[in-house]
Specification:
- The protein is α/β, with parallel strands linked by helices.
- It has one domain: Thiamin diphosphate (ThDP)-binding fold, Pyr/PP domains (Rossmann fold, 3-Layer(aba) Sandwich).
- It is 45% helix and 12% strand.
- It contains ten helices and seven strands.
- It has a five-stranded parallel beta sheet with strand order 1-2-3-7-6, sandwiched between helices. A two-stranded antiparallel ribbon has the order 4-5.
- A hairpin with a 2-residue loop joins β4 and β5.
- It starts with a helix and ends with a helix.
Length: 278
């Protein structure tokens, strides 16, 4: 049985680590990293069939971080789940570090070099189609940002996924409503996302992207789909967990000061206490 409280604690720990490595590296996409944490934790600790002891095992589920600029929380999740060592994570941002500013397949647990927005879903469709035709039985998950929904390649991939009835594919939109230059609906309006994907032959569900139980329910729903790919539109908050970063476009790519790190840690540690006492 999945322990929701334990997953919530892991999410706080990943957020703490994310703030630490962005500060240490003097760079990083902290806002979108923090909004994606709960999704990453739910997938890596409760949903996907993966093994840190054998990252290349046959039949493993595939995960694509399409919003690759938010790599800090991804690396922190991989550290927490045992794919990479704490010593390695501490090199993030250093010269010649294995950990680049976007995901790379050189890192255990990463399937695809991502970062150029709009490419992840296309790769995910290819992986899902391969899994279906080879009968390996694995599932494919793709985490996208809402800002990248304006890329034309996204809709081309969505149409292909619907055409091939890729019920082994689940895509998640981190719907924090912000991108580097402002509100998504002001930069390039993307609603109605549900209608667009349904028109391409997808099932679409909505959830609170910071409600661990709701996320697990959504992913289990996707697993049970027999005829269509599933899109999970996860409502999130950019900078989630750190009040002065929350819902602020200017925290898309920004480094907290020493004082701000302390404030962030105080808030996150308080949240950990609340989970423990809940």
């Amino acid at each position: 049985m999945v322990d929701i409280k334990e997953l919530e604690r892991k999410a706080v720990e990943v957020r703490i680590r994310t703030v630490e490595i962005v500060r240490n590296a003097s760079g990083g996409h902290i806002g979108g990293s923090l909004s994606a944490v709960d999704i990453l934790v739910a997938l890596h600790f409760a949903i996907m069939n993966i093994s840190p002891e054998n990252p290349e095992m046959e039949g493993r589920d595939r995960f694509i971080m399409s919003k690759g600029h938010s790599v800090e929380s991804y690396y922190s999740t991989l550290e927490k789940s045992g794919f990479i060592s704490p010593g390695l994570l501490d090199t993030y941002g250093n010269y010649k570090s294995l950990l680049a500013g976007h995901p790379t397949r050189k890192v255990p647990g990463i399937e695809f070099n991502s970062g150029a927005l709009g490419h992840g879903l296309s790769v995910g469709v290819g992986l899902a189609l391969s899994g279906k035709r080879s009968a390996e039985g694995y599932r494919t998950y793709v985490l996208m940002g809402d800002g990248e929904q304006g890329e034309g390649s996204i809709m081309e991939a969505a149409a292909a996924a619907g055409h091939y009835k890729l019920n082994n594919l689940a895509a998640i939109v981190d719907r924090n409503q912000l991108q580097i230059s402002g509100r998504t609906e002001e930069v390039c309006a993307i609603d109605d996302l549900e209608g667009k994907y349904r028109a391409c032959g997808w099932d679409v569900i909505h959830c609170d992207g910071h409600d661990m139980a709701g996320l697990l329910k959504s992913f289990r729903y996707a697993e049970a789909q027999t005829e269509k790919p599933t899109l999970v539109i996860a409502r999130t908050v950019k900078g989630k967990g750190v009040s002065f970063m929350e819902d602020r476009a200017n925290w898309h790519h920004k480094v907290p000061t020493t004082e701000q790190v302390k404030e962030a840690m105080d808030e996150l540690n308080k949240r950990m206490e609340e989970i423990g006492n809940g």
